[in-house]
Amino acid sequence: MTTFTGWIARETPDGHRTTLEELDSEVLDDRDTTLRVHYSSINYKDALALHGRPGVIRRRPLVTGIDATGEVLASRHPRWRPGDLVTLNGAGLGEDRHGGLAGLAAVDGADLVPVPAPFTPAQAAAIGTAGFTAALSLLALERHGLAPAHGPVLVTGAGGGVGSVAIALLADSGYEVIAVTGRPDTLHDRLTRLGAAHVVDRAELDPQGKPLAKQRWAGVVDAVGGPLLAGALAGLRHSGTATTCGLAAGAAFPGNVMPFILRGISLLGIDSVRTPRERREAAWQLLARHLDPGLLDTVTRSVPLAAAQDAAADVLAGHGTGRTVVDVR
Ligand code: NDP
C-alpha cells in the first residue's frame, strides 16, 4: 500500500464537497496500468468538480481530474513499460473513474498516448483535454471538407482553453481566424499573438432573434453554446461547418433551421471523453505538427496541487485565460 495526495469528491452531510486528502492506493480501482502523475490541469469540468457543482462526477467518493500526465510505474498492458511518459485525456477520468488531480492514478493502458515530441510532460498537460478537444474540432472540420481556401474560421470562447489552442492550431494550419471574446480590450494582443487575424466582441454576434446574417465565415469552433452558437451559425457561409463542444454560455441555444436548409450548413458534435485510440493519436499528431510549444507557454500558468481549487474558482468566475497546469510532483 502506498499513500498519495489528491483532490477527492465526497458526499457529506453538508452536500457534495471536494477536499485535498492523504489517500491510500487501495482507494484506486484495479486497472492494468499505474501512473505516477506529474501534472494535471484545470479544465472547465475540473472547475465544476473541485467546487462540488453537478454535471461531472458520477460516483462518490471519486478522485477528481479529467487529465493525467506522468510516468508509468507498472503495467500489464503490452504497449507500456515502467518509465514511459504518457498522457491521458478524458476516458471517464474524474467522472466515473478516479482521476488525475492526485499523485497516483490507475488507468487503462489502451487509453494512453505517449507524450509526443516536441512537448515536455508539462506542455502535454497544458494542452490537456481543452487542447485535445480543439484538435478534435479541427480534425472534424477537415474530415467534413473544410480547407483554408474556403474562408475564415470563427472561434468562440477565444480567451479560454479550447479557444486559445484552437486559434493557434488553425492559424498554423493556414486558416484566417476570427476570435470571439467577451474581453476584447484585455485579450486583443494575446489573441493576436496566438494567430487571430481579427478579434470580435461577443456582443457583436448576438443574433437578436434573426436566423440568418451576412455570410462571413466558412467554419466555426464553438466552445460556449447559448446565443453565441446561434449567432455563429447565422453567419456561416453556404455549405459551412461548425463544431460544438461546450456550454460555457449555456447548454440550450436559440437555433433555427434556416441556415441548415437555405445554406446547407452542418453542425458537428465533439466528445473528447469517448474518443477511440486512433483518433486520440491523430489529434496528438495534429498538435505536435501545428502547436508551437513556445506559444503554448505564453498562455499557460502553473499552480501546485494545493492551489487547484483556487485556480478552479477563477475559471468558474470567467476570469480564467488560456490553460492552467497543476504541478502534482
Ligand atoms: P474555459 O473556462 O477555459 O473557457 C471558456 C471561455 O468561454 C471563457 O474563457 C470565455 O471566453 C467564454 N465564456 C465564458 N462564459 C461565457 C458566456 N456566458 N458567454 C459567452 N462566452 C463565455 O473553458 P474550456 O475552454 O476548457 O472549455 C470550454 C467549454 O468546452 C466548457 O463548457 C467545457 O466543459 C467544454 N468542453 C467540452 C469538451 C467535450 O469533450 N465536449 C472537452 C473540453 C471542454 P472569453 O472571455 O474569451 O469570451
Automatic annotation (TrEMBL):
Any Pfam family: ADH_N
The enzyme's E.C. designation: 1.3.1.84
Group of enzyme by EC: oxidoreductase
Keywords: Oxidoreductase
Record GO terms (molecular function): acryloyl-CoA reductase (NADPH) activity
Keyword Oxidoreductase: yes
SUPFAM superfamilies noted in UniProt: GroES-like (SSF50129), NAD(P)-binding Rossmann-fold domains (SSF51735)
Lineage: superkingdom: Bacteria
Ranges where the Enoyl reductase (ER) domain occurs: 15-326
InterPro entries: Acrylyl-CoA_reductase_AcuI, ADH-like_C, ADH-like_N, ER, GroES-like_sf, NAD(P)-bd_dom_sf, Zn-ADH-like_protein
UniProt-recorded name of the protein: Acrylyl-CoA reductase AcuI
Gene: acuI
